[in-house]
Design goal:
Layout (H helix, E strand, L loop, with lengths): L5 H37 L2 H12 L5 H10 L2 E3 L6 H7 L1 E5 L2 E2 L19 E7 L2 E7 L4 E10 L4 H39 L14 H45 L5 H29 L6 E5 H12 L6 E4 L4 E6 H17 L6 E6 L2 E7 L7 H4 L16 H11 L2 E8 L2 E8 L5 E3 L1
Parallel strand pairs: 8-10
Antiparallel strand pairs: 1-6, 2-3, 2-4, 4-5, 5-6, 7-9, 9-14, 10-11, 11-13, 12-13
Helix pairs in contact: 1-5, 2-3, 6-7, 7-11, 8-9, 9-11
Length: about 425
């Protein structure tokens, strides 16, 4: 699935990587800005510590202490009802230079009764900033009205804007690539023989230019195919008509020897036209395979009848329950051609057919092949030219087998030749 959508998968991967990178960068920026904000705010703790320390030493009165706090927008809420909630639920942002300490870490052990060390902790609670000043005998919670908790609204706005731009950009890219998927499906349909498919796309971008070039090429191919089909139909018709007339005239020849020669010539011409028509049908891919289940022995019987050989010449060792799913006419033609070849090139004019593990074997005695099998499945190739052969037999067999998911193989077993129909993958066979 991924291979069929490699471009889309690449675009989506780039989108995920880009969004992840941007998100991580903004997260790091958020953490940095937040830390700087906390450090800047906590810079006020030295002033608070000094005021508080002066108050503890009784150098200023309580009204003066409160006046100094008010001067710096600090409000003492030590005795108010929200005091306990702030102390228990507030988040310690920094304490004497140490960030994010637990509330329990604010406990302090004092070793000198006259010196009163002061710990200043900055607490965030409900988007407000508080300073908690504590000594060994006294604590005070101050609300800072001049400072608010860090609000990353500007950073979040920039992040949202950038992510939106990225998503819209990638959505546009995917939208622009969508014609490629449609074009791929259309090409697949055209490859399967649907000549009515159209490739033309409105536009002037690269994809539209490719599609329109394909449409132009398709029109040329369609014209060539129509011309070819018209030529084949005409030539077949024009050839069959004089052949039929020639056979009629041949029967009027008084010399039996000459009559036999002419009849043989016309029979060969009819056979050649038939083989050419079958080759054209298979190689062009225009044939429609009507695959059904048939007993293998029935196909072999039909092939023997079509080859017009004596049943005594063919020894069949095939289980009558073996069934295969094939196009009967084409597969029978392949079997017929191998039967004809096996008998034709066998010294005793006999051959054998067997089935072994899904393979179909055609066996005869005789000389081994002088050249590789690939040589003989090319058209118009043969070792022993005869008047009854055009060198198309194995070529037709090989083409038919490919259409059915078989390959043609050859083995030499002792003094016998074995041509084998080998399935490329396990085919549907039943032994009922």
């Amino acid at each position: 699935m991924i291979k069929n959508n490699a471009v889309l998968a690449t675009v989506m991967f780039a989108l995920v990587v880009t969004v992840t990178s941007v998100s991580y960068t903004f997260y790091q920026l958020y953490e940095t800005n937040r830390a700087k904000h906390i450090d800047n705010v906590f810079g006020k703790h030295a002033l608070i510590s000094q005021i508080y320390h002066t108050y503890l030493l009784k150098q200023i009165s309580e009204p003066m202490f409160e006046a100094n706090l008010a001067l710096y927008d600090l409000d003492d809420i030590t005795g108010k009802e929200e005091y306990e909630a702030i102390i228990r639920q507030g988040k310690v942002l920094k304490s004497d230079g140490t960030t994010d300490r637990e509330m329990s870490s604010l406990e302090f052990s004092y070793i000198h009764p006259t010196v009163q060390p002061i710990i200043i902790s900055m607490i965030e609670y409900k988007d407000k900033i508080y300073f908690w000043a504590e000594s060994s005998h006294h604590t005070v919670l101050l609300e800072d009205h001049s400072i608010h908790a860090y609000n990353p609204i500007n950073l979040l706005s920039a992040y949202g804007t950038l992510i939106t731009i990225l998503l819209v950009s990638f959505a546009l890219i995917i939208h622009r690539l969508s014609p490629l998927r449609r074009l791929r499906r259309q090409i697949a349909r055209f490859g399967e023989g649907d000549m009515g498919v159209r490739f033309r796309i409105n536009g002037s971008d690269e994809i539209a230019l490719i599609a329109n070039e394909l449409d132009t090429t398709q029109n040329k191919i369609r014209s060539l195919i129509e011309s070819r089909n018209l030529f084949l139909r005409n030539i077949m018709h024009e050839l069959k008509t004089p052949i039929a007339k020639g056979r009629i005239v041949a029967t009027m020849i008084g010399d039996e020897k000459q009559r036999g020669r002419f009849e043989g010539i016309f029979e060969r011409l009819e056979l050649l036209i038939g083989e050419f028509a079958l080759i054209e049908e298979i190689s062009s891919g225009n044939q429609y395979l009507e695959k059904k289940e048939y007993r293998l022995v029935d196909i072999i019987d039909g092939a023997i009848d079509s080859a017009m050989v004596e049943y005594d010449s063919v020894s069949c060792h095939v289980d009558t329950m073996i069934k295969i799913e094939v196009d009967y006419r084409l597969f029978m033609t392949a079997v017929k051609n191998l039967i004809d070849n096996a008998i034709k090139y066998s010294p005793d004019k006999k051959m054998e057919i067997a089935a072994e593990g899904g393979e179909i074997l055609f066996i005869n005695t005789g000389q081994p092949l002088k050249k590789p099998l690939s040589y003989y499945i090319e058209p118009f190739t043969k070792d022993h030219p005869t008047k009854d052969s055009f060198g198309l037999g194995l070529y037709i067999v090989d083409a038919i087998l490919k259409e059915h998911g078989y390959v043609l193989a050859y083995e030499r077993r002792e003094n016998r030749n074995c041509f084998i129909f080998v399935p490329e993958k396990p085919s549907k066979r039943n032994h009922k």
